[in-house]
Amino acid sequence: MAAHNxxxxxxxxxxxxxxxxxxxxxxxxxxxxxxxWPSGSRGPKSSVIRAGDVVNLAVWDSQENSLLTAPGQKVVxxxxxxxxxxxxxxxxxxxxxxxxxxxxxQARRLIQDRLVAILPDAQVQLGFAAGSDNSxxxxxxxxxxxxxxxxxxxxxxxxxxxxxxxxxxxxxxxSVRLTRGGSSFRIPAKELLSNPARNVVMRGGDQVxxxxxxxxxxxxxxxxxxxxxxxxxxxxxxxxxxxxxxxxDDVRADPKGILxxxxxxxxxxxxxxxxxxxxxxxxxxxMTTADGLFAARNFQINPKDTVLATESPVTxxxxxxxxxxxxxxxxxxxxxx
Length: 337
Hints:
Order of helices and strands: EHEEEEHEEEHEEHEEEEHEEHEEH
Number of domains: 3
CATH architecture of the largest domain: Roll
CATH topology of the largest domain: Outer membrane lipoprotein wza fold like
CATH class of the largest domain: Alpha Beta
Radius of gyration: 33 Å
Low-confidence stretches: 314-335
Distance between the termini: 55 Å
Mean pLDDT: 86
């Protein structure tokens, strides 16, 4: 419903159970990036060798005329073998051996099988250190930021945060951002900690940033608080917002006039009810009715909204009466001089 003037600049929309389904389809405002999170799954406990990992080999050979060992030597160390971008390492006499994508034990057997042709009695030991493709970065928001190797393929994000010393104290309503490949995901830390399904398996190259949730709404009017209030969870309803504001003043406030002021981009403006018909919208909630209370419980506050508890007509009238009384008193004092 548009404001009543020749050129309306804002719309007034009554929030009710009937209008909530329509409003919920409108775009979210005030948020540069929404909350979404990859689905969780279990992974094997074993590690997998990837490009960039560093492999150390110990080849044991008891032959007197071994191609690898010197006379009287039973073992040769091959250290610092970097897995190439094609997933191979070079082993003398057997050339390139593809080991990426294999567990350390599978890679050891691959190399040993290649060596058997020239060294029938050879036995191989293998160790490796994770490279960048087999490590994750804890960038900030933890006690010990840094690069951490993945110990196995079932290593979870909460284990990584714990290994980094936990979330730094003092962060207000922290959220966790996961950058994976070309995608970015974000979740409130409270939700990550409380929901085991959100504790996703880490992948090589993942980056984790813990930071304060910067979303807020503004509380104004006849409420317990008139200030900027941060979001305490991933979503806040109008009813929760009023509670965070300290409720509405029993004497000053008009519970029939809880207003939410919101600005939409011009790209969201529509004429078919799939979006607002003007960029500036005032949502009105009447909390004196059951319909209004149920609607308030389902109406989502967007970041940068302004929630205004209007003053009651009685309070407004009393303000005018008090003002007139003060003016009358002043004029009387002046006349007595």
